[in-house]
Structure formats: C-alpha cells, structure tokens
Amino acid sequence: MVALDYKQITRAYAILSPMYDLLFERVFHPGRVAAVQLLDVKPNDIVLEVGIGTGLNLPLYPQDCHLVGIDLSRPMLSKAEEKVRDYGMTNVTIKEMDASKLEFPDAHFDHVLATYVISAVPEPVQVLQEIKRVCKKKGHIVILNHFKSENPVVGTMEELIAPLCTRLGFKTDLRLMPVLKAAQLIPEQLHRVNMLNGWRLVRCLNE
Ligand SMILES: C[S@@+](CC[C@H](N)C(=O)[O-])C[C@H]1O[C@@H](n2cnc3c(N)ncnc32)[C@H](O)[C@@H]1O
C-alpha cells in the first residue's frame, strides 16, 4: 500500500481548501446525508466529526446536538469556521487536532463520524483506534469512504493510480475489512453510496 505522510496532507489540503466545496459538495452529497442519518443523533448527544474539513456536513446535523469538529488542516478549518458563523451555529466547536492523537478523554462522545477521511490520513488504523477510544460504549461510529475495489481489474487500476492520488491527499488502495479488523471494529451496517455505488458507508457499534 502506498504511504501518505503529514507533509503531503497539509500541502494538499492547503491547496485544495479554496476549491474543495466546488469540487466535492454535490458529488459526495448523497453519501453525507446517509452518513449523518446513520449516526442516529438524539437531542443533546455529543458528536465528534473527525477530519471535518470545510464543514460540508454541518447543515445536516440536528440543531439540538453538540458537535465537535477536528481537522489537521488550518485552511480547511477556516472554511468550516466561516460556515459555523454564516449558519449562526452555537452548538459547534471547531479544533485543530491530529485524529491519530485525539485530545479527548475515553468514552467522551455519544457518536463519531468520519466522512471521506480514513483514506486521507497517514495512519488509518491508529485513527480508528482513537475514534473507538473516545466513543462511548454502544455509540455509533460511522465511516464513509472509498475503499479499494474487490474487483481485480478495478483494484489493480486503483493500485496504479495510488502514487498520484497520495500527492492529492488521499489513498485509493486502502482495503475496508483489514483496516476495520486491525482497529477491532465490527461493522453492524454496510451500505454502498454515491456515484456507481463506489463509496462504502459503514456503521459500527462501539462494543
Ligand atoms: C477529503 S477531506 C474530507 C473532509 C470532510 N470530512 C468532508 O466530508 O468533506 C479529508 C480531510 O481529512 C483531514 N485529515 C487528514 N489527516 C488528518 C489527521 N491525521 N487528523 C485530522 N484530520 C486529518 C484533511 O485535512 C482533510 O480536511
């Protein structure tokens, strides 16, 4: 698997941040809606969104939850902060933080969401382990991402383009089940979403 490092990520998302919404808002919207619904947020729940980016999921959350959004990229977070101000959201806290070293106590959040993030971090297993640690027992961990295809032809193409894609800030050759297994997460629900059903939406119950 091709490695992705912190320098590549900070550089890629600094460049992408001004055009991120234009490129990715519409095309990934169906998956976002399904992912937030799958979180099944109840009034006053505390939710963590890991790798919140420019905050495209913000309008999808119920207004009566408490949301904490973290990301490594300052330029991406500035866009999320703008949305929080524009939407007049008083229930949202945005923090610059590395998802592989979450600065929260164990079992702090009711639910955790990561959309289009797990293939964009240098250490996906460590990030999932951290998500599991900060989520309460029986909380929902929802992951939405593209993973390497099980179709051998498509999978080989994804391996071939992986070196280029890491320069753009994401991996194309990350496999779903091995990464979940390594983090000791068991999928409770698995769906296919977005264009050509090419993205996987996974809900794990934090056991
Ligand atoms: C493809 S973007 C997805 C953004 C957002 N979740 C969305 O749905 O549009 C990936 C995000 O992950 C963030 N990221 C990458 N590695 C990270 C890490 N170790 N900790 C926190 N955020 C990270 C990037 O800065 C970027 O904002």
UniProtKB/TrEMBL annotation:
Pfam families: Methyltransf_11 (PF08241). It comes from the Bacteria. One of its GO terms (biological process) is methylation. GO terms for molecular function: S-adenosylmethionine-dependent methyltransferase activity. The keyword Transferase applies. Keywords: Methyltransferase, Transferase. This is Methyltransferase type 11. Residues 48-143 form the Methyltransferase type domain. PANTHER family: METHYLTRANSFERASE LIKE 7A, METHYLTRANSFERASE LIKE 7B.
